[in-house]
Write a structure and sequence with these properties.
Elements lengths: L9 H27 L4 H4 L15 E5 L3 H17 L4 E6 L2 H8 L6 E5 L5 H11 L3 E5 L5 H9 L3 E7 L3 H8 L2 H8 L2 E6 L2 H9 L7 E3 L14 H11 L4 E7 L4 H14 L4 E6 L5 H11 L3 E3 L12 E3 L6 H7 L2 E4 L11 H6 L3 E4 L10 H6 L3 E3 L3 H13 L1 H19 L1 H12 L8
Helix pairs in contact: 3-4, 5-6, 10-13, 11-12, 11-16, 16-17
Length: about 425
């Protein structure tokens, strides 16, 4: 299908030339970061388009998700598409070592992972020449011009799913309207999270016939993995103490969480807070904040346990979020007191917990309002309201049980949209189910 958004612009050509010059320097930076995380030299070179795995026989569908959340959403779609397309092969790319580590443990059949090529002509061409995808599906906000244009020109059909662009990103693209239209024209399909995002894409020049509502694909993601031995050890350590979780907190959010917890201890002296910073590398700074409160704490990264007398357990590790959610019926999701955009409430609901959020959940505007209306979540604005919300559920077990059930029912209802998404992808990208 021919593009309808005009040809390449001068800005696109300038970008292509600039990235060709910058690519060697950019590679040094990303390779050093990957090396620091234990990634081998061979796999680092995947960022230059040098593949470390052979291309499989059969039609290949390429998915790309920048980081962990997007990659997990992609895995859900891959698993469902794999059921409909039994002879198709799948490639998942991402940009971070953390995402690679997480998806390696949850890879569906006929799927493999590589690091995405840098958005420069030579890496992208090497990548495409090796993998030859029949279709390419990008998750959320990955608009890399050279990658998109080269992939479309290779004959692959492109989709942007769970489409999400920040207000700042939309504003930047709107200032480059001809180039935005050209980039939008590379896609055969957009599946958006909400009407607001559909409007944004249309304002950038997306073809209205290609823009469809798809809901939030994270609703259909598989539950977070839980290590049974770890969970048993932590439950033994906590014994019968009540627990609440503050998850994925960002700079500026730990302080109100700690203030709320200190207030909660007055009426619930055995209460333990599991504090999970979004970025574990901030653990030392968070430790300093905790120490200033005078509350006792232990750190997961040091192998310590939340034994009796420990008021705060700092969960400063990666890959154990499923355990933390399994330990508590009450979870505050960070990235929401500060205007970060919020984090995934479906993982919490699937684990059987009720959800507390701040007001800054603009990345989940299609999710939190109806979840709050269903009484599976509550919204707070400050430390005092956070303490009251947690205290209410701790003191009213029947109300907590109803909130847990409402959250779980809401998440299950949302996940049914995944069936429609799979059907739409197969039809719009011409992924003929008869190839199976």
């Amino acid at each position: 299908m021919a593009s309808t958004g005009g040809g390449p612009t001068l800005l696109y050509y300038l970008y292509r030339s600039a990235t060709a010059l910058i690519a060697p320097f950019a590679y040094r930076k990303v390779a050093a970061k990957l090396a620091a995380q234990g990634v081998s030299n061979e796999r680092q070179k995947e960022r230059l388009g040098y593949s470390s795995l052979p291309c499989p026989e059969g039609p290949l569908i390429w998915f790309h998700g920048a980081s962990v959340g997007e990659s997990l959403a992609a895995l859900t779609l891959i698993a469902r598409l794999g059921e409909h397309l039994p002879q198709a092969q799948f490639l998942l790319t991402s940009g971070t070592a953390t995402a690679a580590e997480v998806v390696a443990k949850r890879m569906p059949p006929r799927c493999r992972h590589q690091y995405a090529p840098l958005d420069a002509t030579s890496p992208v061409q090497r990548f495409l020449a090796h993998w030859r995808p029949a279709a390419a599906i990008f998750v959320e906000s990955e608009l890399w011009p050279i990658t998109l244009v080269a992939t479309r020109r290779s004959g692959a059909r492109l989709a942007l799913v769970n489409a999400r662009l920040s207000e700042r990103s939309v504003a930047r693209w709107q200032k480059k309207a001809p180039t935005a239209r050209f980039i939008m024209a590379q896609f055969s399909l957009f599946l958006t999270q909400n009407d607001r995002m559909s409007d944004h894409l249309l304002s950038l020049g997306a073809d209205p016939d290609h823009v469809h509502a798809g809901g939030n694909l994270k609703a259909g993601s598989a539950p977070l993995p839980v290590d049974a031995d770890t969970l048993s050890q932590l439950r033994d350590s906590l014994d019968t103490r009540p627990v609440w979780v503050a998850s994925s907190t960002h700079i500026g959010e730990e302080q109100p969480v700690l203030t709320a917890h200190k207030a909660l201890l007055q009426d619930h002296p055995d209460l333990c807070l599991l504090l999970v910073p979004r970025h574990p590398e901030r653990a030392d700074d968070v430790t300093d904040l905790i120490a200033k409160t005078g509350m006792s704490f232990a750190r997961r990264s040091k192998g310590e346990l939340p034994t009796k007398g420990i008021q705060i357990y700092l969960a400063d590790t990666m890959g154990e979020l499923g355990c933390w959610y399994a330990l508590s019926p009450i979870v505050f999701l960070g990235g929401s007191i500060e205007p970060i955009g919020g984090h995934n409430p479906f993982e919490v609901a699937q684990a059987g917990a009720a959800v507390i959020t701040g007001p800054g959940y603009h990345n989940f505007t299609e999710t939190f309002p109806p979840m709050i209306a269903a009484k599976g979540a509550v919204e707070i604005h400050d430390a005092e309201q956070l303490a009251k919300a947690v205290s209410h559920w701790l003191s009213q077990p029947e109300a907590l049980k109803q909130a847990q059930q409402a959250a779980n029912a809401f998440a299950n209802g949302q996940s049914k949209q995944l069936h429609d998404v799979v059907d739409t992808l197969i039809h719009e990208l011409e992924l003929d189910p008869k190839i199976g």
